[in-house]
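Risk register update: the risk of archive-format incompatibility is retired. Evidence:
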Amino acid sequence: MIDLDGLLAAGCRSSIRIGIGIWGDRFSSTASLLRDKGCGVELVSFEEPRAFSEALQNGGVDAGVRGVLRSSDMLGEIRSRYAANDIMRTAVLTASNGKPFLLTPVGIDEGRTMGERLELARATVRYFSPAGWRPSIGVLSNGRPEDVERGEDIRRSLADGDEIARILSEDGLKADHHHILVEEAVRESDLILAPGGVAGNLMFRTLHFVGSGRAYGAPIINLPAVFVDTSRAKEDFVEPVLLAAGLAELGCGSGRRA
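Archived output:
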């Protein structure tokens, strides 16, 4: 069970100082919408990734939202400043019926091996645990059980899905292998573990840009700070800002406020 409304409400009630990569009219519009909601969040505009990452690291801001800054530039600065070889992200979404869920991996170069996917699932559970979330996990793979003879890549994906679900269950987590049945996984689970980053990215884009789901942002779950990655196509950034503020306020990840 995940309480997205509670997390966003905690962000709105907070006085968290959020750095964000927007400026001009988009910055003014987002700040105005937050004031209209009665939120106490303070926004700080950044146009340059280096200054943004420095403020995030040295406490100039309590949390960050990428906004419209180029992903390669901003995430490259974060990798360099935090000496992070890999960036691990988990998207926070709602389905068309309003059900909130988490999705990982979502970067095309993430979750390339069974071990990477397993670590993404474990890291996601750790990251959100201070909010009281203990998500059930729906593991996906590239076919149904009866498709095992339809190619080595499908056979391996099915075997990996079985193994990941088994290991996570041994960790004491609720984990089920839903094979290729995305609709079943979203209905029955809180955290969807895609077969790989490319598949996860396609799922995210299909839901958010083609379907009627909503995307709130993708926190980087392996940083000692709260940073929410976003799509540059968003009209405003109220939801990612409240997500980042809620994460920082509740002490999710390693970015402890207290």
